[in-house]
Specification:
The chain is an alpha/beta fold. The chain is 32% helix and 21% strand. The protein is built from 18 helices and 23 strands. The strands form 4 sheets. Strands 1, 2, 3, 4, 5, 21, 22 and 23 form an 8-stranded mixed sheet that branches. The protein is globular and about 80 Å long. The two termini are 27 Å apart. The mean pLDDT is 96. The structure holds zinc ion. Zinc ion binds next to strand 14.
């Protein structure tokens, strides 16, 4: 006995049979997609009309996100744009630093314990004339409790004086590129890059190990996935300590857990040999709904935080170049060892100089250690140019671009960080496809909200928040965008044999839509209403999640 679902339309993303009226599901897999008569030949079945008026497409695959999108909703949202939480409630954006301070003060007043940490997230001073937010501002909220506000980029943490004290950082004589000092010789309270952020984060609600083991956050993240039509989501930079892995295996293994999570071990606190060894051990613990064994490396920071590494001529305003997060020697060593062990590596590069570094290091590593079908992927690669895409193709690299930047920071890149010409070539989807580089696209949630159809809208329209079209020549068509958020992302995770299409033998993972994304104008792609998902053959309506 199996189930046949009729639907208003089924977009299979299978080029051999792009459309169907019915899909048959058995044991969590697709038995076939076609007409009722074609599917009935498989034998006794029942008809389920739940989706009869809805549109099915392959479950969306978010190739670069973080479970912390679910974790952060337990702290104070400080973002500039309105944003939906896992319950479906929309939080209004904050248009000034004073509004941020006021929301934090309200949260401070609601906390009984004066020493309890107060955490906020998604702050972005670039919308406030790039006025810096440090301890002077945050001390206005409280001088007794530690406060930490994660910036939207995830690459800067603003803290108050109490946090600096607890972290042992409130002293003169510090000399670290990630710890800017004020006129008094003491840290301003802005901490840049993991080396500076992690020791302080521990005291103000951003303990990475604790976040990794945050069970409620994982559940909240999965609820957001259902609301966005996502059936497989990456958790791309987790420390994955053993107790967190135990929790994640238990929770994702529950019969009602609605998403497949692909969690990569981030490079932090281990030597390169130990990192690759750890990835190998994690890979052996993978389950169907928790895939482990990938490694995430970071080459630089973020463009809007001025911590990405840019080639000549650097930042538009003459700001100092960004931060290196890894040395060339370590990067090459990590690649070489991962190639030898068959470990999948995704590398964060934002600036074009960081992309050059990753290309040089991989080329050197591949000379010594060839790796067939390695599918190493550059994450963000926002300033990738055609010459870099050609090198990526030659080296067997994939790319996962970040079109959400056009909307959220496009105006800032045009005016403030990069200037018009380079802003227009950011996230050059058309160039990447023309060069034949396997391509995905992403939200980097919690950096921007999870939502692959919104990401697809960004790639198709390239509109900034003010409405400017940024780099019209790099726009791509709806079909290419839908492919990137399904099969494209699956390919970068080596999961394209299992997911990304509705076809015989694939997982029964569907995004269930109320509107047909191929039948509306491309400007409306972000407005497609989402009913929910089917994951491994189990329906999850968003209204009941
Ligand atoms: Zn990320």
């Amino acid at each position: 006995m199996f189930t046949i679902y009729p639907a208003r339309r089924i977009l299979t993303m299978n080029p051999a049979r792009p459309e169907a009226t019915h899909v048959a599901v058995r044991d969590g897999h697709v038995l076939g997609a076609g007409t009722l008569d074609e599917l009935a030949v498989w034998g006794p079945h029942r008809i389920d009309r739940t989706f009869a008026d809805l549109v099915l497409m392959p479950g969306l695959v978010e190739g670069h996100s973080h479970i912390s999108e679910g974790v952060f909703w337990q702290s104070v949202y400080c973002g500039f744009f309105d944003r939906m939480d896992p319950d479906g409630k929309v939080w209004p954006g904050l248009a000034s630093i004073d509004a941020v301070i006021a929301r934090l003060a309200a949260a401070d007043a609601a906390l009984a314990d004066p020493a309890a940490p107060l955490a906020g997230w998604s702050l972005d001073p670039i919308y406030f004339g790039d006025r810096r937010v440090g301890r002077a501002e945050l001390d206005r909220v409280s001088a007794t409790r530690p406060i930490g506000i994660m910036h939207a980029s995830g690459h800067i943490l603003s803290v108050n004086t109490r946090t600096l004290e607890l972290a042992g950082l409130l002293r003169p004589g510090l000399n670290h590129p990630g710890v800017p000092l004020g006129a008094d010789g003491l840290p301003t309270g802005e901490l840049k890059g993991p080396e500076a952020m992690m020791p302080a984060g521990r005291h103000c609600g951003f303990d990475r190990e604790k976040q990794a083991g945050d069970e409620r956050g994982l559940r909240q993240f999965a609820r957001l996935c259902v609301r966005r039509g996502v059936t497989t989501a990456t958790d791309l930079a987790n420390l994955l300590p053993d107790d967190a892995v135990d929790m994640m295996l238990r929770v994702t293994g529950e019969p009602g857990f609605p998403a497949r999570i692909v969690s990569f071990r981030r490079n932090y606190g281990l030597s390169m040999p130990d990192l690759i060894e750890r990835a190998r051990a994690l890979r052996d613990r993978s389950s169907d709904r928790l895939r482990l064994g990938g490694v995430k490396l970071f080459a630089d920071g973020s463009i809007q935080g001025f911590s990405a590494r840019l080639r000549w001529p650097g930042y538009l305003g003459g700001q100092p170049n960004g931060l290196w997060y890894i040395t060339p020697e370590h990067l090459t060593e990590a690649y070489e060892r991962a190639l030898a062990a068959g470990i999948l590596v995704h590398t964060h590069t934002n600036g074009d100089e960081a992309t050059d570094l990753a290309l040089d290091c991989l080329e050197a590593a591949l000379r010594r250690q060839p790796g067939p079908d390695h599918r190493f992927t550059l994450q963000h690669c926002q300033l990738g140019d055609p010459a870099q895409f050609r090198r990526m193709k030659a080296l067997g690299l994939c790319v996962n671009l970040f079109p959400n930047h056009h909307f959220y920071w496009g105006d800032q890149h045009y005016r403030t960080t990069l200037g018009p010409e380079r802003a227009e070539r950011m996230n050059a989807c058309a160039s990447a496809l023309a060069a034949g580089v396997p391509m995905a696209m992403h939200s980097d949630a919690p950096v921007t909200p999870l939502g692959p159809l919104f990401t697809a809208w960004c790639a198709v329209n390239r509109r900034t928040a003010s409405g400017r079209v940024l780099g019209a020549a790099e726009r791509i068509g709806v079909a290419d965008a839908l492919r990137a958020i399904t099969l494209g992302a699956a390919y970068t995770l080596k999961l394209d044999g299992e997911i990304g299409q509705i076809a015989c033998g694939k997982r029964a993972d569907f995004a269930v839509l109320e509107d047909d994304p191929t039948a509306i104008t491309p400007e409306r792609l972000k407005d497609v209403r989402i009913w929910g998902t089917v994951q491994d053959g189990r329906p999850f309506p968003a209204a009941a999640i």
